[in-house]
């Protein structure tokens, strides 16, 4: 037996599979809990092509959602999408031991709270992934680029768990930025995601170039970023005005890019609307801050979901 | 020969065909200029079923777009959609005589200006149609309900031409409201159309019930109506706050309704985006009035059009 901590990945899509591979490479015992991919992974393991080399691995245990664990993990890494119909606290319950640390590698804002409320005694490590990866077929992942994690204890600080886990990821070959203010980092990431992702969905899959080059598009993005900034500031995370132009210029320098929320929408998969946009608007309302641009996009997305009977 | 005035309908879709039928019934000579429907109408005339009875008729002349007129009409009634790619002033030019009065039965705001500029000596009669009618196949129209026209001289007043034409429509069996302020009436109609029509497109064809019952939907409609009202007031057409709830309550009393702009969009036809929404935002900008909700919807519609390479 290794003296390295044991890892359980809940929701091993592209993100979960990739970070599991990194920890496997670092010498950890890595198991997965799967639903639709169970048969494929049970038979063939997880196949990952990557600029870092072949990261394919066989999880130590391949559990099916509903199984009981043979042992509870030291770190439970939750990588499912944050959707209104998914009770993440219930999803992890069977796998949580007395000493299990909960790790979130998920998008959006204010997504830790329901888990912190459900597991007040478990330390929560909150992570933001900066990665381009996609699942091409069951159990098969293509890692295209990047991979950095921004990591911190929720709601703030850096503890020994963060340090241990970040060292393991570093040993596995990826970069980690430890942060004392992970919630602030979530706001910072939302400056981009909250305008661009939902707009791309509303525009039926417009890429970044189309969004910025449409008459009035760049200004709309600017207005939406400013609304996010105003809410972030009210929450205690002020940012300098210069980040607006930085986000726009940075986006203009990238090749035209269709974000994952747009791809989810176009492929009929649910989108993380509330994690990325709805929660920002809800927090704005608590502060009495008007966010008319964000709100218009949110409500039109809700109308569409109601029309399509999906959420 | 009748001593009744001669009529030419340019753009004989559902609306043009119906109002042509009414004037035919009133004893006028009614001709049409057609494009895609030419062969069907030349062969079979225009077939119209209606609660008013069978309104089918053969136009006195069936012209094809590009023909030369045998005589210029007393009234040229323009019923084409108001679209960025359609030069309406050029479209009517071959048919305009020295004494031809120009009649617009078209939706939207600030749609008279380009014709008034092109034909400064021709009186313009501006009309708003309140009607449910649709073209079911080439040359065939189903008139379902209503039919009232609100009519006035552009930019304001009621002249002898308005009186003559309104009498003919009345003789043909429909109701006419003559108004001294037809532009104000356009603003009044836009209170409904400017929020509901584009939102329905953005939401991929949501009906009025879906729009109002979505969480935040009714408030979004309220905010958009208020923005239109603020611009209307700056243009000299103040309205009482009570019209907001009147529009919402009136809509709730109707059966769920999918508006014509949504149907156009869903059927791949161009939408009157600028006539109904873009012009309102442009006028707001001239006055320096912020209209963030309207602007967000406008820009997202433009993004979609850019993505689809259509406008």
From TrEMBL, chains A, B:
Organism from which the protein derives: Marinobacter segnicrescens
Domain Ketopantoate reductase N-terminal: 7-155
InterPro entries: 6-PGluconate_DH-like_C_sf, 6PGD_dom2, ApbA, KPA_reductase, KPR-Related, KPR_N, NAD(P)-bd_dom_sf
Gene Ontology CC terms: cytoplasm
Functional note: Catalyzes the NADPH-dependent reduction of ketopantoate into pantoic acid.
EC number from the UniProt entry: 1.1.1.169
Enzymatic class: oxidoreductase
Occurrences of domain Ketopantoate reductase C-terminal (ranges): 183-303
GO annotation terms (biological process): pantothenate biosynthetic process
Family to which the UniProt record says this protein belongs: Belongs to the ketopantoate reductase family.
Catalytic activity as recorded in UniProt: (R)-pantoate + NADP(+) = 2-dehydropantoate + NADPH + H(+)
Coiled-coil zones: none
Keyword Transit peptide: no
Descriptive protein name: 2-dehydropantoate 2-reductase
Name of one Pfam family that matches: ApbA_C
Record carries keyword Transferase: no
């Amino acid at each position: 037996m290794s003296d390295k901590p044991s890892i359980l990945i809940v929701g091993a899509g592209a993100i979960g599979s990739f970070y599991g591979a990194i920890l496997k490479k670092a010498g950890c015992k890595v198991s997965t809990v799967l639903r639709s991919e169970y048969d494929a992974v049970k038979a063939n393991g997880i196949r990952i092509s990557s600029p870092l080399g072949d990261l394919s691995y066989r999880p130590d245990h391949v559990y099916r959602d509903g199984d009981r664990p043979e042992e509870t993990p030291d770190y439970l890494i939750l990588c499912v999408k944050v959707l209104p119909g998914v009770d993440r606290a219930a999803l992890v319950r069977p796998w949580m031991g007395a000493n299990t640390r909960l790790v979130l590698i998920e998008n959006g804002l204010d997504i830790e709270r329901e888990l912190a409320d459900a597991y007040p005694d478990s330390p929560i490590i909150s992570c933001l992934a900066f990665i381009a990866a996609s699942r091409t077929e069951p159990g098969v992942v293509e890692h295209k680029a990047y991979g950095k994690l921004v990591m911190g204890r929720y709601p703030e600080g850096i503890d020994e768990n963060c340090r241990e886990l970040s060292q393991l990821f570093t040993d596995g070959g990826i970069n980690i930025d430890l942060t004392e203010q992970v919630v602030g980092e979530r706001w910072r990431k939302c400056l981009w995601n909250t305008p661009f992702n939902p707009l791309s969905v509303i525009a039926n899959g417009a890429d970044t170039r189309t969004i910025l080059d449409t008459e009035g598009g760049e200004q709309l993005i600017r207005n939406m970023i400013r609304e996010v900034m105003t809410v972030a500031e009210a929450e205690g995370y002020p940012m300098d005005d210069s980040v607006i132009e930085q986000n726009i210029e940075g986006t203009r320098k990238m090749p035209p890019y269709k974000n994952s929320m747009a791809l989810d929408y176009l492929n009929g998969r649910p989108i993380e609307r509330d994690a990325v946009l709805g929660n920002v608007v809800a927090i704005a309302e608590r502060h009495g801050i008007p966010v008319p641009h964000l709100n218009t996009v949110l409500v039109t997305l809700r109308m569409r979901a109601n029309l399509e009977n999906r959420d």
